[in-house]
Write a structure and sequence with these properties.
By secondary structure, the protein is mainly alpha-helical. Helix content is 42%, strand content 0%. It has one domain.
Amino acid sequence: MQGRRINVEINGGMNVRRWVLEAADDGRLRDSADEGYSKAWPYSRPDDELDHHWWNGFAFSSWQLLDLHNAINDYQSQASDVL
């Protein structure tokens, strides 16, 4: 899947905000809503990964996290309708 490219000015230290800006500048910015789901996605640090600064590449905005509760409720409601 092709990432989104956004012309941005990269500033700040080495943190998630900078990583997101670099991904946008490189055309690697992707919307998680477009990605679907895969059990193979690395949600947690692998046991054999020694670098405790390991990052799985996911970055969530505060807006996404604010809506997480509603998304879970919607999912549970839809799942119960199927049963």
